[in-house]
Amino acid sequence: MLLGEIIRVALEALRANKLRSLLTMLGIIIGVGAVITMVALGSGAQKSVQDRIQALGPTLLSLYPGQSFMRGVASDVRVSLTIDDDTALANNARYVTDVVPELSRNLQVQKGTQNINVNVVGTTPNYVPVKNYTITAGRMFTAGDDAARRRFAVLGSAVPNMLNANAAAMIGQELLIRGIPFEIIGILSEKGSQGSFSNPDEQILIPLQTARYRIMGTDRLRSITVKVQDMSSMNLAMIDLERVLRRQHKIRPGQDNDFQIRNQTDILATLQQTTETFKYLLAGIAAVSLLVGGIGIMNIMLVSVTERTREIGVRKALGATRFNVMFQFLVEALVLCLVGGMIGVVVGTIGAVVLSKLAHWNTLISPFAILLAFVFSAAVGLFFGIWPAKRAASLDPIVALRYE
């Protein structure tokens, strides 16, 4: 039998049992579709983490107050970071381009009849570029405004909505922070929660010296954010920051630090590894559907061999070789898997898009995942089609012709 004729006979056999062929392909369709959708969910989660890293700034280090230690035992007294620490870091730390102090507290803010409780942050003008914000309306306060202790406020993007006001129209208007009037001079761009408990869009920025002397009456900082020159200098910068702060806090050699230095990208990198593991776990679970689909194809092909035993005997009696018979059944199994794989690709892609639109989940359809699922479906067809094909090819023509 010619190769083209073998393929034609195989396709006709599938066409003669359309419903059975469709039901056989169902396992492959579900498997391929599930693999593509699950990988798209996992890839979308990874992309979300990468976006968070870029939004935070990949070269940022955060310094927080720690605990004091007495003879190796932590005390209940919190050691504070102060504006003097900020000054020491700005003057002495190497590998650093910017140092941003944050003096913050949750305070009551009033505008007209609206009253809200938000995070008020006293900081310096370089807060906006270091934290990867932009000003969408108005302007940021300047170093001169800070030195003069001007009562200026820059609102996070969510604050105008909280006050039931139009963001752009609020420029030049006044609001009260602890009863003290502040002029609104700018609106920050939207940042998003970044997976943390607090939302950075629900904050109000005011000049550091204004916060220190007019609002909060303290020089104790909540945190200091440091921008490092480049990614390759991160470890050196952390060592140097530790050196400067230990000297500033008069910590003796051998004593523990009373401050914390956190690399935010390390935390998010851990989250990224978790999401990657989760992606592979989901893909593995979905791949089980492909395995089940392959077993279903093997079962149907074995039934087909039994049903067509007499037909196989006739073909062998007319000169068909073992290869001809085996190849025919392999073609049938491959066609079932490849057609099922193509339909599964479409189903999986649509499923990922639907989850993104309706459930608002982050999805990222990977061409590699599509290719891998499609190739795997073909491999499933080949693997699970070999045994039925070999069984058909090994039938004795005399015994097959006598089969009822």
Overall geometric form: elongated
Number of helices: 13
Secondary structure tally: strands: 14
Strand order of the largest sheet: 5-6-11-8-10-9
Gyration radius, rounded: 34 Å
Provide the low-confidence segments as ranges: 68-77
Arithmetic mean of pLDDT:
82
Main sheet record: 6 strands, mixed, barrel
Percent of residues in helices comes to 40-55%
In N-to-C order, the SSE pattern is HHEEEEHEEHEHEHEEEHEEHEHHHHH
For the record, give the distance between the C-alpha atoms at the N and C termini, rounded to a whole number. 25 Å
| Helix vs. strand class | alpha+beta
* Quaternary assembly: single chain
Overall tally of domains: 2
Strand content: 15-25%
Please, could you describe this protein's structure?
With 404 residues, the protein is of the alpha+beta class. The chain has 2 domains: 3-52 and 269-401, no CATH class; 80-248, no CATH class. 55% of the residues lie in helices and 21% in strands. It has a 6-stranded mixed barrel with strand order 5-6-11-8-10-9. Strands 2-3 form a two-stranded antiparallel ribbon. A two-stranded antiparallel ribbon has the order 4-12. β5 and β6 (114-123) form a beta hairpin. α1 (3-16) crosses α11. The longest helix has 44 residues, at 264-307. It is elongated, with a radius of gyration of 34 Å. It starts with a helix and ends with a helix.
